[in-house]
Amino acid sequence: MTTPMNTSKDFLTALQWLSPAFPVGSFAYSHGLEWAISAGHVTQEAELLEWVRDLVQFGSGRNDAFLVSLGYQAHDIQALRDLNAHALALSASRERQAETVFQGQAFVKTLKDVWGHDLPSLCYPVAVGAAARLEALPQVDIVAAYLHAFSANLISAAVRLVPLGQTQGQRVLLELTSSLLSVSNAALDADACALSSTTFLSDVASMRHENLQTRVFRT
To answer: Is a pLDDT exceeding 90 seen at residue 105?
Structure first.
């Protein structure tokens, strides 16, 4: 006897939007990690785990999860624009701002071309949250999927740059599971006053990346 699948169409849409195949160009961005690797701050599996976990719990990963949630909760265009301005003000460097703006523009364009939703130009996490509301996706699904994709993209960059094996990369992503779930759940009741970051080395990395002599990634 075949057991019917319990997976919803909404959940699959969330996976599609945050898939590496979705054309936002996430593969081109390392979020400053390329500089951190070149400077010797991330050279092995344990250091990569610590770096990404800190971002998820205390830095830009946490902020992005909260911004997805706040974008989902925004009820009109002006609220989205105000949130977007707040999000851009949190960007610690020119490259960090470019990363979120360009990915947001690409996301909004594909959303309109495929799903027919017309959103203004928004930074990436705000755009994802606003789109999820328009498509009536569960808030918990889209926040968790975003944070998982954020972490997976950084791990993928490190696998190529350190280099690390694919198995090590998967081990790091598995070790992050509890942090991803905890921050995703916290983001569901977020307000703008909760946005903050204490991952200062990551911010410095994003500032210094543009001066690297040889670069693979745009940020």
So the answer is: yes
Residue 119 lies in a domain: yes
pTM (2 d.p.): 0.95
164 Cβ contact list (under 8 Å, min separation 6): 44, 45, 48, 158
CATH code assigned at 70: 1.10.4190.10
Cite the DSSP H helix spans in the chain. 9-17, 33-38, 45-58, 60-73, 77-89, 94-115, 124-134, 139-161, 166-175, 177-187, 200-208
- Number of independent structural domains in the chain: 1
User: Considering the domain boundaries, does residue 10 fall inside one?
Assistant: no
Average pLDDT for residues 33-62, to the nearest whole number?
98
d(CA 162, CA 45): 9
- Confirm whether 90 is domain-assigned: yes
Instruction: Report the pLDDT value the prediction gives residue 5, as an integer from 0 to 100.
Output: 43
Structure tokens at 32: 């400053």
If you average pLDDT over every residue of the chain, what do you get?
A: 95
DSSP label of 123: -
Domain assignment present for residue 15? The answer is: no
